[in-house]
Amino acid sequence: MSRGMEKTADFEELRPLLFSIAYRILGSVTEAEDAVQETWLRYEASPTPPASAKAFLSAVVTRISINVLRSARVRREEYVGPWFPEPLLADPYQDPERSAELADSVSMAALLLLERLTPLERAAFVLREVFGFGFPEIASAVNRSEAACRQLVVRARRHMSEGRRRFEADRREREELATRFFGALTEGHVDELRELLSADVQLVADSGGKAPQWARGFFGADEVSRVLGALLPPFVRIGGVVEPHQVNGQPGAIFRDPDGKVMNTWTLDILDGRIQTIRTVSNPDKLGHVGPVADAWAVLRDTQQARRDGN
């Protein structure tokens, strides 16, 4: 096998890991994919083979992601409304020995906590706590001493633990609750919806000012159940589809218009047998990787008309 073919084989084997590192640092599918592609170009151009392809490529994708994140932070400060990560339908990297850490670290709640960290803290935390890299490898990736990297991880752990709420680990129970929720949602069963929601539930949306926005969001079981019970049945009547799907390792759904185009994605945070937070991503710029994007304004108009006709 030629050296070029060996490089390609090594890179393709490690591509899932590289994407997963980049996504957790950036919170963006498209930016993570770009970071991985740039990593390949640098690897392809490197004149001498590294001692470890995994160490080399992980370091390169981490450095690229840190630089991208620094510039992205400025854009996020000017973002219209709440900012959420781009929805991830499936994590390409799997490691049975770290499955719990991997699933937890990709949730919307965890990624939003990671936003509290500096780019260096975030990178060090992801490499150490999620993927189990040693401090010599982390030091090489972020161009800091091992002692400095240990401090980065300590600070990151403290920030993460201060804001973390532990979500239920029993996947089957979460899936059963999500199935009941989406069933009641499409049928407009307000009382059943209310029973599945925590008293202080939040329904919040990321539209980026480019899709219908739910003002400041909706809060409390009564308000959230009433709003959902009013809007979802007419959406289904016009041919809209609620497609249950894992999103960011959590129970969620993809909402599609009558033509099958993507309206938005939902994720459910579940604690103590109740839904605590519903996060929706409707910014079309964040949905292109999920599929063709719908005209959300047109669907909203049709839904509102169907609601008026139903009344």
Q: What does this protein look like?
A:
Keywords: DNA-directed RNA polymerase, Sigma factor, Transcription, Transcription regulation. Residues 109-160 form the RNA polymerase sigma factor 70 region 4 type domain. Residues 11-73 form the RNA polymerase sigma-70 region domain. Belongs to the sigma-70 factor family. ECF subfamily. A six-stranded mixed sheet has the order 2-1-6-5-4-3. 38% of the residues are buried. The radius of gyration is 21 Å and the shape is elongated. The chain is built from twelve helices and six strands. The chain is an alpha+beta fold. The protein has two domains: 3-163, Butyryl-CoA Dehydrogenase, subunit A, domain 3 (Up-down Bundle), CATH 1.20.140; 171-310, Nuclear Transport Factor 2, Chain: A (Roll). It starts with a helix and ends with a helix. A hairpin with a 5-residue loop joins strand 4 (252-256) and strand 5 (262-271).
Question: Which features does this protein show?
Answer:
single chain, 311 residues, alpha+beta, Butyryl-CoA Dehydrogenase, subunit A, domain 3, Nuclear Transport Factor 2, Chain: A, 2 domains, six-stranded mixed sheet, 12 helices, 6 strands, 56% helix, transcription regulation, RNA_pol_sigma_r3/r4-like, transcription, DNA-directed RNA polymerase
